[in-house]
Specification:
Layout: H1 4-33, H2 35-63
Helix pairs in contact: 1-2
Length: 66
């Protein structure tokens, strides 16, 4: 059975990988068409991914049984 801390590490790692995939694929497509839109896309999407990771971390610590 896995430790709870290992579970949260795996969840965070999965969110980072998924977030990077969600960002990189549209960014590459936009970069070929319009560099300005690609730049705006990064400025919007990166904080959203970071916020979702932060929410998962905070949720874990709130629900963790001491």
């Amino acid at each position: 059975m896995r430790d709870e801390s290992l579970n949260i590490v795996l969840i965070i790692f999965g969110l980072i990988v998924l977030g990077n995939f969600i960002i990189v694929v549209p960014y590459r497509i936009l970069l070929e068409k319009n560099k300005e839109k690609a730049k705006k896309f990064l400025h919007i999407s990166l904080p959203i991914i970071e916020l979702s990771i932060l929410i998962v971390i905070v949720w874990y610590f709130i629900n963790k049984k001491w």
